[in-house]
Amino acid sequence: MTDSRGRRLLMAAAAPVGAVLFSVLASALILMIAGSNPITAYGDMLKHASKLEVQVSMLNRATPLYISGVAAAIGFKMNLFNIGVEGQYRMAAIFAAYVGGAIALPGILHILLILMVAMIVGSVWAGIAGILYTQRGVNEVIATIMLNGIALGLIAWLVRRWQAPGEIAVVGVGTEPIESSGIIPDLNFLPELIRDLRATEELTGVLLVAIVVGIVYHVLLNRTTFGFDLRASGLNPLAARAGGVPPKRMVLIAMLMSGAVGGLVGMAEIMDKGRYNPNFVGFLGFNGIAVALLGRNHPGGIAIGALLWAFLDASSDILQTTQTAPKEIVDIMRGVILLTVVIGYEVVRRIRERDEAARAAARLAEVSS
Amino acid sequence: MALAIELSGITKRFPGVIANDNVNLAVEKGEIHAICGENGAGKSTLMKILYGMQPADEGVMRVGGEEVAFSSPSEAIDAGIGMVHQHFMLAGHLTVLENVILGAEPVKSGDRIDFAEAKTHLAEVGEAYGLTIDPDDLVDSLEVGERQRVEIIKVLYRGAQILILDEPTAVLVPHEVDELFRNMRELKASGATILFIDHKLEEVLEIADTITVLRQGRTVTTVKPEDVSIGDLAELMVGSELPTPETTESTVTSDLALEIDGLTILDEDDRPSVDDVSIRIHRGEVVGVAGVEGNGQTELVNAILGTQHATAGSITLLGEDITHSSVRHRRESGVGYVPQDRHHEGLLLSAPLWENAALGHQTKAPFANGPWFDRDASRARTEEIRETFDVRTPDIDVAAHALSGGNQQKLIIGREMAAEPEVLLAAHPTRGIDVGAQAAVWDQIRQARAAGMATLLISADLDELIGLSDTIVVMYKGQLVATVDPAEITPRDLGSYMTGALQQDNEAGTSGEGASS
Predict the structure, then answer these.
(1) Which candidate from B307, B330, B394 shows the least CB-CB separation from A363?
(2) A229 interfacial to chain B (CB closer than 8 Å)
(3) In A7, B57, B362, B393, which residue has its Cα 20 to 30 A from B331's Cα atom?
(4) Using one digit for the tens of pLDDT, what is the confidence trace for A11-52?
(5) Cα(A82)–Cα(B370) distance, integer angstroms
(6) Is B56 helix (H, G, I), strand (E, B) or coil?
(7) Is B247-334+423-517 in CATH node 3.40.640.10?
(8) Per-residue pLDDT tens digits for B486-512
(9) How far is residue A218's CA from residue A210's CA, in Å, rounded to a whole number?
(10) Is residue A56 in a domain?
(11) Cβ–Cβ below 8 Å for A225 and B339
């Protein structure tokens, strides 16, 4: 490892770690002002998170957040702000649940079919914004925000149309339940290596999907010429174009890929419930943007971000139970972390630029003297 | 009477290059003073220093007789200096009045903007300087010339007595230029001092009271327009001493590498920026394109590279019609590219050097292995480039922005040459790099030329053009106006062709054949 690489890594870690520390301190101050004891509150949070069942629950929460973060990161790498993961994953989820409920295939094929439908629907929904951008110059932020609204309306209509047949009282509200062949099995054997799980919590099998998504994202981005094209377009579109990267096609492909990954965000919930119902989990798309931001679009960074978010989610639950502190403190911490990390990254970027320039200049003087 | 502006001994160094070297300038009150010089002569740097955008390393500035040192444009504005940039800085959906007062709004009680007061003041300014414009027009609805007038009024509104106009005519059509000059004369009559940068010599002679010529960062001389001709000015700009053309053996072969036939490119307003241009470049040949910037050279290069569409005509690379091919196909077929602005089109500034070294070649060996990007090969190639082209860097993991301009340029040249292109499009390949590096770049191009590379060389450095080219064509207003032999041309004649003062008879101009034909 060269000197510059080491410094880069160190500095990359400085901002998020600093942001988390700062947010812990700032939140402590707020807790004291609000009349709570921050040490007890933080103690409760950590004690809670040390339980195996809670850790499983954190992984379950982190899984869709991670996939959503990667979906947002693909866009960010191209300087595209895909705000539409929210709509993309909901559309993908209802279609995947409907198809999965209507058709039963043997074993793994059923699961693959459901995942494929989700990816295709997600990328089609994102692709609309991509085509609007490349053909008509419509800003992708506006297009994806509007598509989110359209998706919600469409789903409200579809969910009634695709209501499972039979008495509501018996079958419940939602699409036809997916047969067990279409459900990714849980990974309970993993935590059970440590000890038997006490609660009903199951470790979602979609975690495997998330891991595959992360690996594919990393390899595609860093080890393929396509990834090089993608990153180059994001860093300097003019230079990328002069270097042979077709700008419009890259935008479209990036949107399609972002949408395809976005389509998988709802799978954890679908696999858990076995159907799509009207109180399907929301805001995973927006939280994914936060997680991608926190993790600097890096596959590992996004994972840490998703786990942190999941930890804060779990903490919110325990604070509600123990009443040691208002659970809203968790939202404050999230906000503080996000704001601080954005500032932190910029500060680090400037320091790094100055550091590199100084060392290059020193080198210049050294060689010419 | 004290001088409006007096600069003495201004020196500004950037890593690897001296932008201003002991520059002296004396501008009298109430005159129109032109600064001319080629690209890279140091005009813009000097104006940036004067306007407080960059500090000078050495030298003294006096405004109205008092010594000043500006650390920001706002201090320059307070001293009565205003700058009109080449690219307008206006908010299109605001009115003229709103644009003018933006950032200098008069306030009445309750922190509200005093529009009545603003309008009165604007009318006074317009009256005083003879500039008329409707304050309630939306800027979006204005013509380019009118927008420029808004920019000028904006500066006057802030109390500027001394105006710096950075290439004000570059964006204007002829009748707008006439209007601008009328306005400039009225401003002068009302007591304003105008400093303007231009390299269109006819215009300079028409409007200026005094002309200062810069060359390679130094003041060459200050002259009165009545004492000089366009030819004299051109010679002052490019240097009077005849550069010694390199007596290298011709390596021109009879194999055509690149054939451009009847190429025409229309701009957004359907005006031809490249007008029926035909050029043939053989393997082993360097064809130099001389011309004052903005006469179609950039568009010509873009069309060959594929980033701009040819409206008419054809481009043939090694026998294959590539007129409608993608940029990628052209690059893969062996088109190398050294862009005129390395930050714009040449580099991924925040990416490490070893990624930059692959840019434009990422789909070919050694960088690509099927769909895979070979990082190790890219790093190895970068080390090679660093070695061969003497790129001064602590290691190849630093980001490209950390390098000095000269070293960035060496990296780009190295990247393109290492890919062994069939045709190299080189726009100002040695701009902003030091003399030693310059010679190294020239050697590299000569070596590749001997190995059969065809080169289209665009340069503002006439020494470079004459020294490297086998044939020189001159572009003026989008057309090839002359084809000359670098062994016989003088910089003075070349300068005259470039400024349109001299025209070659038509035959040579339109055929544009290489020297070997």
Answers:
(1) B394
(2) yes
(3) B393
(4) 778 888 888 888 889 989 988 998 888 899 899 899 999 999
(5) 30
(6) coil
(7) no
(8) 888 887 788 888 877 777 754 444 434
(9) 12
(10) no
(11) no
